[in-house]
Amino acid sequence: METRNWSAWIDVMPMSNRTLYVTGEMMLKLIGVRPVLSKRVPQGINDTIRILDLALKPLGPSAENDAPSDRWVPCRYEEDLESAETTCKVVSIYYEDKLIADIEVKTAH
Questions:
Q1: Is the pLDDT score of 29 beyond 90?
Q2: In terms of residue numbers, what domain contains 95?
Q3: Does residue 86 sit in helix, strand or coil?
Q4: Cα 37 from Cα 7, distance rounded (Å)
Q5: Pairing status of strand 98-108 against strand 3-11
Q6: What was the pLDDT predicted at 62?
Q7: Structurally, how many domains does the chain consist of?
């Protein structure tokens, strides 16, 4: 399993919701799946680290789902944050309970 080009930032522009964005790419070997990032529940004890799980979700039942297809597919996660949650400094991404990326969170003004 390969991933690349991870980035994470919090949008703190005036007049907008504070939103955490995480983007990256995953190499997919099959046609009928897509990568999905979701917030792990429960989160860890360190509130400066946001933990996300990366999983593959089927697109639907089809014989074509098992067809090979090496291609990079974008992954994206968005979360509206409360003001107090802007202390998020790192996003940790896990795939099948293994840490695959630690991403420093930037701030967009």
A1: no
A2: 3-108
A3: helix
A4: 13
A5: parallel
A6: 62
A7: 1
pLDDT at 67 (0 to 100): 61
Find the mean pLDDT for residues 82-103.
87
Name which of 54, 25, 49 is nearest 103 in CA terms: 49
Question: By the 8 A CB rule, do 32 and 66 touch?
Answer: yes
Sheet holding 98-108, edge to edge: 33-39, 49-58, 90-95, 98-108, 3-11, 19-30, 68-80
Q: Would you state the structure tokens that stand for residue 8, as one six-digit string?
A: 């994470």
What does the pLDDT average to over 64-79? 82
Q: Which residues pair with 9 in a beta bridge?
A: 21, 106
Contact 104, 9 (CB under 8 A): no
The span from the CA of 35 to the CA of 46, in Å, is 26
Higher pLDDT: 34 or 37? It is 37
Predicted local confidence at residue 60, as pLDDT: 72
